C-alpha cells in the first residue's frame, strides 16, 4: 500500500508566506519603535544601538543568502519554521539587555539568523513555485505581509510601550513567533530540492555565470542603495519624530503607518511588474523617495513629517517582491533561491549601513539634517542606476 503526502493548495501556501513575513516583518521594526526609550533609559549613544542594527543587517543578510541556497535543496517547512523559532528566542532575549553587547548578540546575531532563515528569499521561492504564471502579484501579496505586520504589530506594541515599557514589547514579539509555528506547520509544503510544482524543468544561469553580466552588478548596486534608504528611515523615523516634539505613542504609530502605505505599494508594484516588468515600479519608487527626502530636508514640520511618512511608506520594501522577478527574467529559475538570496543579502547590508550611518551622523551633528540630505543623494544615484537596467523578456 502506498501513502500520499497531502499538499496544501496554492492559496494556503501563499497565506503561510504572508503570515511568516507578517510576524517577522513586524518584529524586525521593534528596535525602531524602542530606539529612543532604550537609549535614554540605558544611557547609551544612539550609535551603540545603531551598531546592533548594523550587525543585524549584515548577519541577516548572510543568513538570507544561505537560506536562498538551502531553499533550492532542502525542505522549506524545516527552513522556515526553524527560522521562526530562532527569531523568537533572539527577540525575546532583548527584554533583558543592560549593555550594548547584549543587543549585538541577541538582536544582531541570534534574531538575525532566524530572520534570514524565514525571510523574503525562501518565502519568494515557495510562492513562485506554486504561482509560476503570476509570480509578481503573488510575491507582492506575500511581501505585503511585512508591511501589514509593521502596521498592525507596531501599532499594537506602541500601546504596550506606553503602558508597560519597552522590555515588554520584546516579550510580546517573542510570544508571536512561538505561537505561529504549530499553526503554520501543516500549511508549508515539505518539498525538498528545486521542486517546481507543475512548472517546466528549471533552467538558467549559475551564480558564477550571472556574476559575469552587467545586469547582475547594476542590480546589486540598486538593491544596496535601496537598503540604505529603507533601514535608515525605519530605524530612525520614530526617534526623529520624538526629537521634533511628538510623543512616543504618536511617533510609534508613524512607523506603523508606513506599514499601511507599504502594503499598498508592494501589492501595486507586484501587479505592475507582471504587466511591465520589475524595472518600472522600482524607478517610480525612487522618484517618490527623491520627493520625500527633498521635502523633509527643507521642512520638518509635523505636516511634512506626516507627508514624508506616507510617501516613503508607499515605496518601502517595493523591491522585495521584485527580486525574484529580476532574477527569473535575467538569469532563469535553476538557481533562483541562491541568486535572489545574494541580491537580498546586499540589500540587507545596505540597510545596516543606512541604520548605522544615521546614528553616527546624529551623534556627530545632534540632528538628522545631514542624514536626510545624504539619503536624497542616494536615491538620485539609485534612480540613475535603475534606468540603466535592461528590460528583460518576462518568463512564465
Characterization of the model:
With 396 residues, the protein is mainly alpha-helical. It has a single domain, classed as Growth Hormone, Chain: A (Up-down Bundle). It has helices at residues 10-28, 30-42, 46-71, 76-93, 100-117, 120-130, 135-164, 166-184, 207-210, 214-243, 248-276, 279-298, 302-315, 323-331, 336-365, 369-388. Helix 6 (120-130) runs antiparallel to helix 15 (336-365). Mean pLDDT is 84; it is low at 1-6 and 196-201.
The portion of residues assigned to helices is: over 70%
Task: State the name of the first-level CATH class.
Answer: Mainly Alpha
Q: What pattern of helices and strands is seen along the backbone?
A: HHHHHHHHHHHHHHHH
Rounded to the nearest angstrom, the radius of gyration is 20 Å
CATH-assigned homologous superfamily: MFS general substrate transporter like domains
User: Approximately what portion of the residues adopt beta-strand conformation?
Assistant: under 5%
List the total number of helices: 16
* Gross morphology: globular
Q: Look up the CATH topology.
A: Growth Hormone, Chain: A
Kindly state the number of beta strands: 0
Q: Into how many domains do the coordinates divide? A: 1
**Low-confidence stretches at least 5 residues in length (pLDDT < 50)?**
1-6, 196-201
Largest sheet: none
Amino acid at each position: 500500500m502506498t501513502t500520499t503526502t497531502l499538499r496544501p493548495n496554492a492559496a494556503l501556501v501563499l497565506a503561510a508566506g504572508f503570515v511568516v513575513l507578517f510576524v517577522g516583518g513586524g518584529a524586525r521594526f521593534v528596535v525602531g519603535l524602542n530606539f529612543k526609550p532604550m537609549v535614554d533609559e540605558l544611557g547609551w549613544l544612539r550609535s551603540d544601538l545603531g551598531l546592533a542594527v548594523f550587525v543585524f543587517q549584515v548577519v541577516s543578510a548572510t543568513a538570507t543568502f544561505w537560506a536562498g541556497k538551502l531553499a533550492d535543496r532542502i525542505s522549506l517547512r524545516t527552513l522556515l519554521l526553524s527560522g521562526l523559532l530562532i527569531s523568537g528566542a533572539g527577540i525575546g532575549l532583548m527584554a533583558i539587555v543592560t549593555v550594548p553587547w547584549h543587543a549585538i548578540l541577541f538582536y544582531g546575531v541570534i534574531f538575525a539568523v532566524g530572520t534570514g532563515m524565514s525571510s523574503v528569499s525562501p518565502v519568494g521561492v515557495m510562492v513562485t513555485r506554486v504561482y509560476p504564471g503570476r509570480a509578481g502579484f503573488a510575491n507582492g501579496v506575500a511581501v505585503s505581509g511585512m508591511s501589514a505586520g509593521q502596521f498592525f504589530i507596531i501599532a499594537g506594541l506602541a500601546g504596550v510601550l506606553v503602558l508597560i515599557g519597552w522590555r515588554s514589547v520584546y516579550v510580546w514579539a517573542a510570544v508571536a513567533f512561538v505561537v505561529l509555528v504549530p499553526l503554520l506547520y501543516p500549511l508549508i509544503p515539505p518539498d525538498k530540492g528545486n521542486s517546481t510544482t507543475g512548472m517546466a524543468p528549471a533552467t538558467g544561469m549559475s551564480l558564477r555565470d550571472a556574476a559575469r553580466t552587467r545586469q547582475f552588478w547594476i542590480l546589486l548596486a540598486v538593491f544596496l542603495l535601496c537598503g540604505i534608504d529603507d533601514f535608515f528611515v525605519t530605524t530612525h523615523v520614530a526617534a526623529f519624530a520624538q526629537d521634533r516634539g511628538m510623543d512616543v505613542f504618536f511617533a510609534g504609530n508613524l512607523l506603523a503607518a508606513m506599514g499601511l502605505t507599504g502594503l499598498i505599494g508592494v501589492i501595486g508594484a507586484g501587479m505592475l511588474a507582471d504587466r511591465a516588468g520589475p524595472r518600472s515600479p522600482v524607478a517610480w519608487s525612487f522618484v517618490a523617495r527623491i520627493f520625500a527626502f527633498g521635502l523633509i530636508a527643507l521642512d520638518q514640520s509635523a505636516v511634512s513629517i506626516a507627508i514624508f511618512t506616507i510617501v516613503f511608506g508607499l515605496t518601502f520594501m517595493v523591491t522585495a517582491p521584485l527580486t525574484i522577478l529580476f532574477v527569473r527574467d535575467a538569469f532563469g529559475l535553476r538557481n533562483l533561491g541562491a541568486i535572489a538570496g545574494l541580491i537580498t543579502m546586499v540589500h540587507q547590508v545596505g540597510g545596516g549601513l543606512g541604520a548605522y550611518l544615521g546614528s553616527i551622523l546624529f551623534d556627530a551633528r545632534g540632528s538628522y539634517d545631514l542624514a536626510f540630505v545624504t539619503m536624497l543623494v542616494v536615491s538620485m544615484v539609485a534612480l540613475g542606476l535603475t534606468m540603466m537596467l535592461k528590460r528583460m523578456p518576462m518568463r512564465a
